[in-house]
Design goal:
Spore Coat Polysaccharide Biosynthesis Protein SpsA, Chain A, alpha+beta, 6 helices, 4-stranded mixed sheet
Length: about 160
């Protein structure tokens, strides 16, 4: 992700739209992200939790658990903190000094934006779960997220 947003900034882009590459999200729904950005938000995160029954139960449980913790750290409600479908203002993103390079980067980004007082908007999105396999390593990436979380709680 960091490589992509750096390249986008080098080319003069003001915004970057992150979209998971597994085909679960509909690119047409990005219009809702743009509308929120036009109202002054610096980050807009997709919200799959408005239709939670479409999500496998373990993802639904994990997402709710993580979203509560990220919301608390960010100081504002973030209903779907793990959603990879997000629109972010690049000049703002460049000021955050993010250290993460794996899946926990989305949590770190959200908390950093919230702590700096930037509005975090959410837009409802649909999500199509098929037979694709997640590239997340349940043990390794969960441990990595917990290490990030412990650091974030100390700040």
């Amino acid at each position: 992700m960091a490589t992509g947003w750096v390249r986008a900034m080098e080319r003069g882009a003001e915004w970057v739209l992150f979209l998971d590459g597994d085909g679960q999200h509909d690119p047409v729904e990005s219009l809702g992200f743009m509308e929120s950005a036009e109202r002054g938000c610096r980050v807009v995160i997709g919200d799959r939790m408005r239709f939670p029954n479409r999500m496998p139960w373990i993802r639904r449980f994990t997402n709710r658990w993580v979203s509560r913790r990220v919301s608390r750290l960010a100081g504002c409600p973030v209903p779907d903190a793990l959603c990879g479908y997000r629109l972010v203002h690049l000049p703002t993103l460049a000021t955050l000094g993010l250290r993460s390079r794996r899946y926990e980067i989305e949590s770190e980004m959200t908390v950093a934006l919230g702590r700096q007082g930037f509005a975090i908007a959410s837009v409802p999105i649909t999500c199509e779960y098929r037979s694709e396999r997640s590239r997340i390593s349940p043990v390794r990436d969960t441990l990595r997220w917990f290490r990030w979380y412990q650091r974030a709680c100390r700040v």
